[in-house]
UniProtKB/TrEMBL annotation:
Protein name: DUF4116 domain-containing protein
Domain DUF4116: 104-151, 154-198, 205-252
Species annotation: Alexandrium catenella
Any one Pfam family match given in the protein's UniProt record, by short name: DUF4116
Top-rank taxon: Eukaryota
Entry-linked InterPro entries: DUF4116 (IPR025197), Ubiquitin-like_domsf (IPR029071)
């Protein structure tokens, strides 16, 4: 390949650092070495970015956009923690941060652990990252609205989300709203989560009996005539007498059921 000269302009967080005269045949490592000679910044502390993409030491400059001038951003390794430290004082720091910052996994993870809603300003790739989304969730359950939709097909993510707030079941993929274990976990955190369970599951007698042994008031959400099923209602009122309010009318005056609820006939 023809050796083509190129000016590599290096910017840091505070502005332009230096300019390096090089060749399109150079690797990024050669650029780093030239930067080190000019700025005294050790090669091992240098991270180079073209836009939001990190340039690896082995990458050749010829793989980057052609032109007489190439603009790169240099980030010193210790600068990552500076962004996280600044986030302690400014919860919106990620909103106006450079693209490379919003795409840096270490920085974003550190910031969402402090401010969950900062997930909104992370790169699209990082909003698909389970660990980052869960860290944001643990800090602020409202951050889930900014998580990538494909995460709702991830069982571990869904289970963590409903442990935080059972009502997040509404966002889960249908396969999880039909999963007895997932639905019961959601309902144990928030009874009203049963509203978002699959209709098929809420008609399934075996599942409903299991659910009512956990919480009799879940009788409210039963379908398929189960509120008129004597055994189902008995299980519910034995667990919680108030479940009687959700039984079919003809069973609300049933002596055996009233007795099971601790009420006199």
């Amino acid at each position: 390949m023809e050796d083509v000269a190129v000016e590599v302009r290096i910017r840091g967080l505070g502005g332009e650092l230096c300019s390096v005269e090089g060749s399109r045949l150079w690797t990024a490592r050669q650029v780093q070495e030239a930067i080190a000679r000019q700025t005294k910044i050790p090669v091992q502390e240098q991270r180079l970015f073209h836009g939001s993409l990190e340039v690896r030491a082995s990458d050749h400059l010829r793989t980057l956009p052609a032109g007489e001038v190439l603009d790169l951003t240099l980030v010193r390794s210790h600068c990552k923690m500076e962004w996280v430290a600044r986030a302690k004082e400014d919860c919106w720091i990620l909103e106006d941060a450079p693209r490379w910052v919003r795409a840096d996994r270490d920085i974003v993870l550190g910031i969402v652990k402090l401010h969950g809603k900062a997930l909104e300003f992370a790169s699209s790739e990082l909003r698909e990252d389970r660990e980052i989304a869960l860290a944001a969730l643990q800090q602020d359950s409202c951050a889930l609205e900014f998580a990538a939709s494909n995460l709702w097909y991830d069982r571990d993510f869904v289970c963590a989300a409903i442990r935080q707030n059972g009502l997040h079941l509404i966002s889960a993929a249908e396969e999880f709203r039909m999963d007895p274990d997932v639905v019961l976990a959601a309902a144990s955190q928030n009874r009203a989560a049963m509203r978002f369970a699959s209709g098929v599951l809420k008609r399934e007698r075996g599942f409903i009996l299991r659910a009512l042994r956990q919480d009799g008031l879940l009788l409210r959400y039963c379908l398929g005539g189960l509120q008129g099923d004597r055994e189902v209602v008995l299980v519910a009122v034995r667990q919680n007498a108030a479940a009687l309010d959700f039984a079919a009318r003809e069973l609300q005056q049933d002596p055996e059921i009233l007795s099971a609820a601790g009420l006199t006939v």
